[in-house]
Every structure is written in C-alpha cells, then in structure tokens.
Write a structure and sequence with these properties.
Length: 189
C-alpha cells in the first residue's frame, strides 16, 4: 500500500464514515481522540479493501517496470517490483511466462509492462462511487470498535457489500462497452 498522510483532504471522508456509525465527527484526523485514532488505523485497510477487490476503471495506470538488480533464486531470470501504489493487477504485457509473487513479477523477459489499479493518495483521485465505497467500508470497520454492536456492524457490512456489487457491475459494464467498440465502425456512424 502506498504511504498516505491523512491530512484535511481525508477528513470529510472519515467524518462521513463516523456519522454512519453514529459517532460525532472529528475536527482533525490527528486530534488524539479515540475516533481519530481509529480512523488513522482503519483508513488504510478500507482503501486496500476497496481498491484490491476489482480493477476499477477510474484507478487504472499503465507503467513499464524496471528490473531489480537481484535475480530470483531460481525459475526465472528477472524480477520486477510493482509500483508502491499498486492495489490490483489488471493485465501484464510480457513475452513468455511470468509469475506474480508478493510485490514482484518474475519472468525471463527483459521487459514488463502492466496495467494496474492504483491506490489513491488523496480522496480527490477516487471517483464518486469509490469515495462512497470507502466511506461505507470505513464505517463498517469503525463500527466494530466504536459500537461493539454486531447488528450495526452487520447492517453496515451488508450495505457495503450491496454497494460494492453494484459498483463492480457498473464498472464491468463500462469496461465491456469500451472493450467491444470497433473504432472504424463507431467513427463511421
């Protein structure tokens, strides 16, 4: 996961999650309150949960990876480190076989290009749907220590799962529409 500093840009998102739990909002994510401390602890988990579950169209990046200086112990000639903001792999462009192991790609190819979901460094980099999912996931995670009420936590988890399912279906539909367009046919219309 990318290193995040949870400044004022994340405050609105965290306060929306706190309100969903029935907790008072905080003035700052570093105010030392119990709520702020839980937000700081659980926000990275919420981001990882949302961004690693699906290759979100709004979060995709394309990069060519640089080989690491050390070679794998055996099996492949090269290893390539994944970007620090890596959340989920969408595709790999490489000649021959490859293997994803931990935070590296192993291969015999000297060149590796990937398309991947990148975790946001600010909430502004997340689209509206993804910000809403982050709020719902964070609210569920916060409900466990703040409410200690399985009914509330279960309801929040159910709301997150329903929203996640809808968001994935919508994102897949958009991917399908983009992937099935035929350039010369669409341009001639």
């Amino acid at each position: 996961m990318a290193t995040l500093s949870f400044d004022a840009q994340w405050l609105t998102l965290a306060n929306r999650a706190l309100l969903r739990v029935g907790s008072k909002p905080v003035l700052s994510l570093d105010d030392g309150s119990t709520q702020a401390n839980y937000c700081n602890q659980l926000l990275p988990q919420a981001i990882d949960s949302v961004y690693s579950v699906h290759p979100w169209r709004d979060s995709l990046k394309r990069v060519q990876l640089a080989p690491l200086a050390s070679a794998p112990a055996y099996g492949f000639a090269y290893k390539f480190a994944l970007p620090t903001d890596f959340a989920r792999l969408k595709s790999v462009d490489v000649e021959g076989e490859w293997s994803l192991e931990g935070q590296v790609i192993l291969t015999d190819s000297e060149s590796v290009s990937i398309v991947y979901s990148a975790q946001p460094t600010t909430p502004d980099l997340a689209g509206t749907v993804l910000r809403d999912l982050l709020v719902k996931q964070l609210a569920y995670l916060l409900s466990i220590p703040l409410t200690k009420n399985d009914t509330i936590s279960g309801r929040l988890l159910s709301e997150f799962n329903q929203a996640l399912s809808l968001a994935i279906n919508q994102d897949n539909y958009i991917h399908h529409e983009e992937d099935t367009r035929v350039a010369w046919y669409d341009e001639s219309r």
